[in-house]
Amino acid sequence: MQTDNGTAVDLTNCDREPIHLIGAVQPFGFLLAVSSSGWCVTRASRNVVGWLGVEATDLLGRPLDQIFTPDAVHTIRGQLQSAVMGDTVARAFGVVLTGGGLRCDVALHVIGDTVVIEGEPCVDDPATNAGAMVRGMMARLQQTSALRTFYRVAAREMRAITGFDRVMIYRFDHDGSGEVIAESARSGLESYLGLHYPASDIPRQARILYERNWLRIIPDVNAAPAAIEPQLDSEGHALDLSMSILRSVSPVHVEYLQNMGVAASMSVSILRQGKLWGLFACHHYTPHHVSFALRTAAELFGQMFSLLMESRERDNESASEARAQKLHHQLITVMAAEAIQFESIVTHLDDLADLLACDGIGIWINDRPTLKGLAPDEAQFAKLIAFLADRNISEIFARHDIGAEYPPGRAFADRAAGMMVVPLSRPARDYLVFFRREIARNVDWAGDPSKPVTSGPHGARLTPRKSFELWRETVSGQSPPWLPVECRIAESLRVSLLEVILRLSDLTETERRRAQERQQLLIAELNHRVRNILGLIRGVITQSKDSATNVESFTKVLGGRIHALAMAHDQITADNWGPASFRGLINAEAGAYLAGKADRVVISGPDVLIEPQAFTTVALVIHEMITNSAKYGALSDNHGRVEIATALDALGRLTIDWSEHGGPPVKPPTRRGFGSTVIERSIHHDLKGDAHLEFAVAGLRASFTIPAAYVRAARGEAGDGAETTAAVSNRDTVGMPKDVLVVEDNMIIALDAEDIIRKFGVVTVRTASGVAQALREISDHPPEFAVLDVNLGTETSFEIAKRLAEIGVPFVFATGYGEQVAFPPEFSDAPKLRKPYSIDSLREAVERWTDAAERNR
Length: 857
Fold this sequence. Notes:
- The chain is an alpha+beta fold.
């Protein structure tokens, strides 16, 4: 059958329905959408009049603080602070929204530049304690041992907390279909346990939403939805309701539930490694609403169940993987000691078969086949290998139905219905193939999954099937599916055979032993050096960013330092990781960074070689000395010079005397940046040597001592080093206070503000939750700046602001209220930061008002 436009009607039509852009909400609550910039209403559900007494169209364009009470707006802004990133829905319970006393439970989320606010009636239930309920549920769940009992108890616990007539645990199979693996239902209901449902019953776009939204409820399947006004914005876009708790229901899904006789439903997602593993599917046969608080508890239980289920399944997989790994290592050890020819692999086919649950095995190497157990015959196997080669199968390839991928495979399906292909060469021409025999099985479907369908009342869309009577299908030509853990075991085997055994098959026993020894030494040394280099570069990056004023300066500083490391590495690897010339280091650094000024760096004394273990440290120190001199010292003008004198003392230690002459007058630095830290501390810390700096007015003087263990006499002069460009940026967090007080009664928001402020380079951030605590902090040690939340529960922060103003400490108010909040006259023009605030807005507030305070002093 085809639609009017010629499109075939099949089960994939549902996949094209944009259910997240449905343009309506379920009527058990209302929806408002406001702009995140001006907080004015941009959309409203039509049923809002029944809640707020104002038509939806009359709310459009109005500021939120003209609709809700100031306290409600403050609560919404404060809760939204935790939902500004990612797919997160913030919640607030028992919020008084209007002056008329309307109390609602509120859900909040952000989509683009729109804040979506959804409200539903607040259900007061003192006995509802989500944390305590879930703890008890999890305690009972953890007492189970077998997985079947574990699933059954979970379904029972979910039904107990939600009150649905039926709760099922529905697990998705590899092909997208699903099976009911556990069930808890009231007496008198027909059991669905063990029934399968085709993949089309839950379309692809619905599965995507299940991964983003943990819980979905439909309290009344037959309730008329409330449309959202306007349906489209000025750019013709509908409101994205992906994260909405009220999102209306697809007409196709409504009809599907009606055909099942279901009047209310709820689902809680079960995720494994972030992917949809299954669902708690809840059905009720009369309308049934679950309060927001109980739904929150059910959602939390679903999340905890997912973690515990994943842990248990991973434990089972780990035990299987450990057993296979043990056999794998034993097999590889034996094979590695043999002649490593084709005959050796054939000899161990039975051992290879033990690694995976298989019924037969085949090996194809150099156009020679060998088969054991239940497998195709040699002619069939040769054609199958040709098919795999044509497909260029170069990775682990697993199929439980060979005939579906390779139709000639149906001829041997009774012996080998499934295969796991392990390529053994590059390019792929040799293969190891594990086979599994056919397992004919009966699958009980809830209705005929392939029953013909017709176009229904919703136009060119699929009408859901009406029959859910038991329909039994006998499945043949398939083996048990290969599990992900079995694919990992096969991949481990492939790597071993490909990279170890087959690659060494042409070596003699002596050559193989020597190659293994060299490889082990090389890997150990390479691993040691790479870890050290990566750790050093990570430290340089971390420390360099603190002094950079912008991306360009950061790039320049970091580039210079890493290039200095690269130049040092080039020098010590030029002679097979041997010691490198100190004089060559000076010449290379001066020539690369100073160009025409390089002749103003004078070196005297014997040349020495620095061992590789110390060369990188010394190179970084010299780089910082040269760049500092070029920016601030003797090399910063056209007259100064640097003299470097080397000597070996009686203990064989290298002494380096650095003196600068003819430059501008020297002043001791007012702060210690990363470069200064490298100069003063790295030789002592890394090499147990010494470093001393003297900031004489006539020129910087420095002396360094390198222990004898890292020094040896040079046979000749070192060559030029590689060209480099270097610069040092000593910018600190100029203009930022060193001590900030944050007054906030919400601990989460206070911790968030503290983390943000610390990223600015602020040394000390103190927090206070109330007026008394804040005044004590100020009395003990006045801060340099303060962030004050206006509303502190039962009190305000105006008294704190008054005290800060008296002692001249700048501050900013952080508030979730509208602009019309009543500030005392003395603070009417005080700076204000609107919640939820970002890193940039908070930084701007701190910088602006600390600068203003500095100018007024």
